[in-house]
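ok so for the tutorial part 2 we go from a plain amino acid sequence to predicted structure tokens. step 1 is just haveing the sequence, like this:
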Amino acid sequence: MTDPRQITLDDVLGPAKALGSAGVLAKIRRREAGKAAEAHGRIGEAEVARLCTAAREHHVARLEQIATPTRGRNGRRRFAAKSIVDFLGFLMDGTGRVVAIEVKTTAEGEALALARVDEHQREYLDTVLSAGGIALLAAVFGEPVGNMLLRLRTYVVPWADVCARTRVTEGQLLAAGCLTGPEDFLLPYLTTP
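step 2 — the prediction. this is what the tokens look like for a chain of 193 residues:
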């Protein structure tokens, strides 16, 4: 077993000779940016989970978060397969229509690049839509403070409205009336008895 006092920066980041000091710093910055983006994504998904819980409590929809399949042992985990979408469920209005939601989170002032919706997720949302289900994109915007996001704003938009676009801004979503709260994010899709 290696003595922890003998671990060097090269052990953690790879050989500095090949990267040079600028390369090592760039690698550290990329790793930190990746950790922040991952944390921001978890925060966005937690915000949408809150909306889904409220929808269930109001007997509007039953939506479950879909975990990415993983495998692991000895405390290590790796992705075993691709996830379909972040949330999947159905309306509780008597129609039972399928609802699929993909969540993307971005920091204050940034446009949401729709290229971040992976191809397999796009295909799944398109399939739900073509089968008569409800395919939605939840765009969560927040103000970054390290790995945290504050003052979250969630916009739930029909996938059909954004699937052909390359990016969407918070201003565009706000102008389209997509800002949502827990009591209303699925109301446009409910049938009246």
